[in-house]
Amino acid sequence: MSVGELAGKVVLVTGAASGLGRAASLRFASEGGRLCIVDINADGLAETARRIEVAGGKCTSMAGDLGDPAVCAQAVATAIDAFGRLDVLCNVAGILRFHALEDVTTQDWNKLFAANVSGPFFMMQAAMPHLVESHGNVVNVVSSAAFLGQAYTAPYGATKSALLSLTKSLAMEFMHKPVRINALAPGAMLTGMVDGLEFPEDSDQSLISRYISLRPPSQPEDIVEPLLFLASDRARSVHGACYIADSGITAG
Q1: I need a surface site. Which of 111, 131, 187, 221 has the fewest CB within 10 A?
Q2: How many CA atoms are closer than 13 Å to the CA of 217, on its beta-carbon side?
Q3: Residue 102 to residues 4, 89, 96, 99, Cα–Cα distance (Å)
Q4: β-bridge mates for residue 131, sequence order
Q5: CA separation, residue 62 to residues 65, 76, 77, 152 (Å)
Q6: CATH for 10-245?
Q7: CA geometry: angle at 115 spanning 114 and 118, to 5°?
Q8: What whole-number percentage of the chain has pLDDT above 90?
Q9: pTM strictly above 0.70
Q10: Are 59 and 37 spatial neighbours (Cβ–Cβ below 8 Å)?
């Protein structure tokens, strides 16, 4: 695994216990990257680490809740302690909930913003000095919900719009520094994030159908391809951008 697009690079992936985060971690390792993987799900994280190591990759891991800024700082320190540098930060971790407006609790709101906005923000804050030093990059995973009003996902959509705004604002703030900051916006994906989720009772199906693609949902492995591109040196001229990979949901 000494050759590949990420050979010699250290990549920190959040949300690596399942879904897109796991698929990205496995692919990045196959491309020669040395992985630091992070997730709140310790068991799933251990399985991802096992798969990387069985395939001959190099990996360190840390379980923790990235809604806590101290945990974010610790995650970056784990990567630096293990490998001595950091080249790529992929903020993949996130949660999705369906709510009618009247059912959204303070706890629901705070939990979504902690996972989907605060975590990525404090990860970037902790990682940025190391990424500037290595001429590295950040990829934030947002969603097609950052571009479309979607019934019953108002708090979730607000978090993804906020993360997209953070991406663009920090890209401007670091315009004269040797670092790239970009976003990737998938649409529907067949991952564990949607397992067990249900729309509110008496939901208006005509509203839900407006943001369901006419094409099938993506597999995580499909979304890894544009994620790898943004994380790699092939995207050296891409900064402050958002690549959309949503099977046409936002096309019209």
Answers
A1: 221
A2: 9
A3: 50, 36, 17, 8
A4: none
A5: 10, 10, 10, 33
A6: 3.40.50.720
A7: 50
A8: 82
A9: yes
A10: yes
20-55 pLDDT, tens digit each: 999 999 999 999 999 999 999 999 999 999 999 999
Determine the distance from the C-alpha atom of residue 78 to the mean position of all C-alpha atoms in its chain, rounded to a whole number: 19
pLDDT per position as a tens digit, 156-210: 999 999 999 999 999 999 999 999 999 999 998 887 665 666 777 887 877 777 7
Q: Which residue among the candidates 152, 156, 211, 243 is catalytic per the annotation?
A: 156
Give the Cα separation of 181 and 97 in Å (integer).
27
At 189 the three-state DSSP class reads: strand
35 to 5, 22, 79: CA distances (angstroms): 14, 11, 8
Instruction: Give the pair of three-digit tokens for residue 20.
Output: 């897109």
Q: At what angle do helices 19-30 and 220-231 cross, to 10 degrees?
A: 50
Residues in a beta bridge with 59: 35
Q: Where are the beta strands (DSSP E) in the chain?
A: 10-14, 34-39, 58-63, 88-91, 137-141, 180-186, 242-245
CA distance 213 to 134: 39
**Annotation marks residue 243 as catalytic:** no
* Nearest Cα residue to 122 out of 140, 142, 109: 140
For residue 75, how far is the Cα from the chain centroid?
Answer: 15
For tokens 């693609």, the residue is 213
* CA dist., res. 80 & res. 36, Å (int): 9
